[in-house]
Specification:
By secondary structure, the protein is α+β, with helices and mostly antiparallel strands. Helices cover about 20% and strands about 35% of the residues. The chain is built from 13 helices and 34 strands. It starts with a strand and ends in a 6-residue tail after the last strand.
């Protein structure tokens, strides 16, 4: 029996509770009260919109619709208010791609230059599958625009994005040989869909997704001003709980431009467990592992990457698929437990960078009997083995991962190994001669295994069903003379200039309009940066003389800049 309880507060905040029979037990009054506690802190103040729900194959099992669409007008969010889905929008673009494949209009092995005019000849080996799997070697246009001091408008237009993508003359790698998550892939997929159908992406998403499912509020629009439904505005949190409307810079077609309501999201997630065979086939393909041409799959700290841009891993012994977007004051987190036929989602427009605690908080309560079969490890009772201090000191030092462009440090203190990451110090407890368990609360024990595979001493860490790439101990070489590194560097493809300068004997990378980035020597001519987007810089040389730099970071690799020769006066 379904039961709907609607309570409207004096602030016009709306809370929706729905119980439904599903693969989990019907939600009891006590379970609903426990779920309500997750949202108590959001009920104590006036705030921008937030929606969250637990959905089963029968429909809505529990929901919350809170806050305001418009803080100035004090207009409350409703079930039909639409929220921008951020990068979750890419899933709908890829759904259209697979729909066109089913209709025989394109093939996954098609070369993209056969469908899009004006692309560089170096793109000739990129297929539609490479775009789907994030193995194309294309740089991420958004991250490039955020750290390269290029001339462009905000929000970025589709034309400017195409210009930036086409400026990449050399790919980061041969397509299909490596993974590099890039929003440029979804953008080009949208252009391919439009090219082969003679329809714009908004029409295609409506035709292939919204209309078949019977959703009425959701829209696919490039410009927020074109949204005709009741729009929940995104906000930036200020002092004293004051909010200002966020400058929404991202509406790029195929990447950021889907808007959906609470009631439409319930329909969407309920459809994951429906009887529509075509729909189920496409969802299954979106949930399949993204693979290299040699069949290898991509595993990160988030799990195994799927074609739909989701991640899959075990959550307390239960297989979980999850998506998230944290784009510009809009946070969206979705956890899908297919074996339990349950989906938990949350969208907030209050400036929070991540709201997974809401989605997982609901899952932890509703799926608690299943989670209890896999209790969290007791980190205070790790069965340690005795290791001599001399053995542990062998593992101390700094380690580097060339794929993630990340440096980590392990030290000894009081005869113990300590793992240092992002300002935290976490003990490593020896459980075997070369194996240590991280003393950190998590759903699965995390182990560090040290070995020398011929490329030097390194460690690989494992947690649950995931194995992560190896970090190798840094074999330090003397840093090159700063005088040789200092200078001006230019990239003619993007018309960008950077300078390397020395400030109090420390190297910095600077550009007009993009500020300073500090450089930390790793080895040889390789330096790590303190930037969230630009991760590493490598100084190239010929016969011992610096001739250029390559920049690598989130969504791009080895972006080439040539050193400008000084002209003698």
């Amino acid at each position: 029996m379904n039961r709907i309880l609607i309570c409207i507060t004096l602030l016009l905040w709306t809370f929706i509770h729905v119980s439904a029979q599903s693969s989990v037990d019907e939600l009891s009054e006590s379970t609903i009260k426990t779920l309500d506690k997750i949202f108590e802190s959001y009920q104590e103040k006036e705030m921008p919109g937030l929606i969250a729900g637990a959905v089963t194959s029968k429909g809505l099992a529990y929901g919350q619709v809170l806050g305001y669409e418009d803080m100035d007008e004090k207009k409350a969010v409703s079930e039909s208010s639409v929220f921008q889905l951020g990068e979750i929008s890419k899933l709908f673009t890829k759904y259209v791609v697979l729909s066109l494949v089913e209709d025989g209009k394109i093939k996954m092995i098609d070369n993209i230059i056969n469908h899009i005019d004006g692309l560089p000849d170096s793109y000739r080996d990129i297929t539609i599958y490479h775009l789907m799997a994030n193995t194309s070697g294309l740089y991420d246009y958004k991250n490039l625009s955020s750290f390269l001091p290029m001339k462009h408008t905000l929000p970025l237009t589709d034309g400017e994005v195409m210009k930036m993508i086409s400026a990449q003359k050399d790919l980061a790698f041969q397509p299909g040989t490596q993974f590099l998550q890039s929003r440029s892939n979804a953008f080009l997929l949208a252009r391919i869909c439009e090219s082969v159908s003679d329809k714009n992406l908004s029409q295609l998403v409506k035709e292939y997704v919204f209309e078949p499912l019977g959703v009425g509020d959701s829209q696919c629009q490039v410009d927020r001003a074109d949204v005709t439904a009741s729009l929940a505005l995104p906000y930036v949190a200020g002092d004293n709980d004051n909010y200002t409307i966020a400058d929404h810079h991202y509406h790029v077609s195929g990447v950021f431009n889907v808007y959906a309501s609470f009631r439409d999201l319930v329909i969407w997630y309920k459809s994951y467990f429906g009887d529509n065979q075509r729909h189920r086939r496409i969802l299954s393909k979106l949930n399949s592992h993204a693979k290299l041409d040699n069949g290898a799959i991509h595993t990160t700290g988030l799990g195994k990457l799927t074609l739909g841009g989701q991640h899959v891993h075990l959550e307390r012994g239960i297989n979980k698929t999850w998506q998230y977007s944290t784009t510009e004051n809009t946070a969206h987190t979705v956890f899908i437990f297919r074996s339990k036929e349950m989906v938990f989602f949350a969208i907030s427009h209050n400036g929070e960078p991540y709201n997974g605690q809401l989605s997982m908080g609901m899952a932890d309560i509703v799926l608690k009997p299943g989670f209890d079969k896999h209790p969290l490890p007791d980190i205070n009772n790790i069965k340690a083995v005795e290791l001599p201090v001399s053995k542990m000191k062998k593992y101390t030092g700094e380690y580097w991962n060339a794929d993630f462009l990340a440096k980590r440090k392990i030290i000894t203190r009081n005869d113990s190994l300590i793992y240092m990451v992002r300002g935290r110090e976490i003990p490593l407890i020896p459980v075997a001669d070369n194996k240590f368990q991280l003393k950190m609360e998590s759903e699965y024990p995390t182990y560090f295994e040290f070995s020398d595979d011929g490329d030097g001493l390194g460690y690989q860490y494992k947690s649950g069903d995931s194995e992560f790439q190896k970090y190798y101990k840094i074999d330090y070489a003397p840093s090159p003379a700063k005088e040789d590194l200092i200078g001006t560097y230019v990239n003619t493809d993007y018309d960008v200039i950077y300078k390397v300068i020395s400030v109090e004997d420390n190297l910095k990378l600077v550009s007009f309009g993009s500020g300073e980035v500090s450089l930390d020597h790793v080895t040889d001519r390789l330096y790590q940066t303190d930037s969230n987007v630009l991760w590493a810089i490598n100084f190239t040389e010929t016969k011992g003389v610096t001739t250029g730099i390559t920049l690598s970071g989130e969504g791009f690799r080895d972006l080439i800049f040539n050193k400008v020769k000084r002209v003698e006066q």
